[in-house]
Amino acid sequence: MNKTLPYKTKQFFFVLIKLSVVVGAFYFIYNKLANNEGLQFSNFVDFLSKKNVFTSKNIILLLFLSGFNWFFEILKWKTLVSFVKKTTFKHAFKQSLGALTASLFTPNRIGEYGAKAIYYTPNFRKRIVLINLLSNLLQMAVTIVFGVIGLYFLATNYEVNVDYHKLASVLIIGLILVFLIGFGVKQSKFTIKGFSLEKVKQFILKFPKEKIVLGFLLSLLRYLIFSFQFYFLLQLFGVEISYFNAMAIITSMYVLASVVPSIFIFDVVIKGSVALYLFAFINVNELTILSIITIMWLLNFVLPSVFGSYYVLNFNLPKTED
Predict the structure, then answer these.
(1) Burial of 204 (C-beta count, 10 Å sphere; 0-12/13-18/19+)
(2) The organism sits in which domain of life (predicted)?
(3) Sign of dihedral through CA atoms 86, 90, 96, 101?
(4) Angle at which helices 56-81 and 122-157 pack, to 10 degrees?
């Protein structure tokens, strides 16, 4: 007996799934703004109205910076994915923003892996997942490099109360766990959803080095742009701090926030908590920092996800011959 669903029924469920993704993303955005215990949305709006810093010129510059942030992210994706399949900037644009919308409410943006892979036929999907992993690792590498430098200058310029004995103990335990896990994985044929770690390793080693270098440089440009955007907002809100000292705190904030597992929609909460602790060293008002964190989130994630929702709704599965 043939139990295959009729074509129209499949299409109906496909449209329903796309609508669910978009509605889910918008609901989480609304919920985050309306039910944020740290920063009530009404207080956020009132604070911005009183500050009156968002002139047309400032808004255009902030949007310009967000646009370039995503321009380099899309260009990086186009560069890396061309290793397995040539794609245009337009297609990379659709894939990047559509995947952002689909992954907005998933833990640690894990939904992005599946969302980008589904744009390709099954024979490409495993490699697309690995390329997305490589893309994220390159961005994390930049965050760690700048974050370590920032933490060093933060510790030398401000009185940071750190229990070094406890920190050393945590690091030693962490290194032992990493070693034991690595040793155990090496001694066994460990796989994750069909991916063996050896195959992942070989895939990255065989990846064109010039594309990895270019991907790293594009990640660096992205980092410099959104870090400067944060500094620019500090200046708009009247925070008197030099660029060097601000970057020490901003880079420290990003690396500390990145190591905390979180649901991406609550990324604003994680960064907000870390930022409040770090900016307390220079006595910056809590409302100012929480407002800046929220604005950064709105500009760099919520706004692009609005555009991405259009591509989610208009998404069609790739044809086999493609």
Answers:
(1) middle
(2) Bacteria
(3) negative
(4) 130
Q: Residue 121 and residue 119: Cα distance in Å, rounded?
A: 7
* Token digits of residue 188: 């066994």
**224 located within any domain:** yes
CA nearest 254: which of 286, 285, 281, 231? 231
Average pLDDT over residues 305-315: 89
Tell me how far apart the alpha carbons of residues 165 and 152 are, in angstroms, rounded to a whole number: 17
Report angle CA 50, 53, 54 to the nearest 5 degrees: 115
Which tens digits make up the pLDDT trace of 42-67?
888 888 888 777 888 999 999 999 99
In the chain, the amino acid numbered 219 is S
In eight-state DSSP terms, residue 106 is S
Answer whether residue 284 is part of any domain.
yes
Convert the pLDDT of each residue in 60-111 to its tens digit: 999 999 999 999 999 999 999 999 889 999 999 999 999 999 888 777 778 8
Token pair 């994750």 in the structure block, residue: 192
Maximum C-alpha span of the chain = 75
Instruction: Say how far apart CA 73 and CA 88 lie, in whole Å.
Output: 14
Q: 22 in a domain, yes or no? A: no
State the DSSP string of 30-73: HHHHHS-SSS-HHHHHHHHHHH----HHHHHHHHHHHHHHHHHH
Q: Report the domain count for the chain.
A: 1
What is the domain range of residue 248? 54-160+208-313
Q: How far apart are CA 313 and CA 45, in angstroms?
A: 31
Contact between 150 and 248 (Cβ < 8 Å): yes
Give pTM, 2 decimals: 0.84
Neighbours of 276 (CB within 10 A): 16
The 10s digit of each residue's pLDDT in 202-212 is 887 888 999 99
Q: Evaluate whether residue 62 is within a structural domain.
A: yes
Non-local (6+) Cβ contacts of 306 within 8 A are none
Taking the CA of residue 290 as centre, how many other CA atoms within 13 Å lie in the half-sphere pointing to its CB?
16
Residue found by looking up tokens 């991405």 in the block: 308
- Type of residue found at 84: V
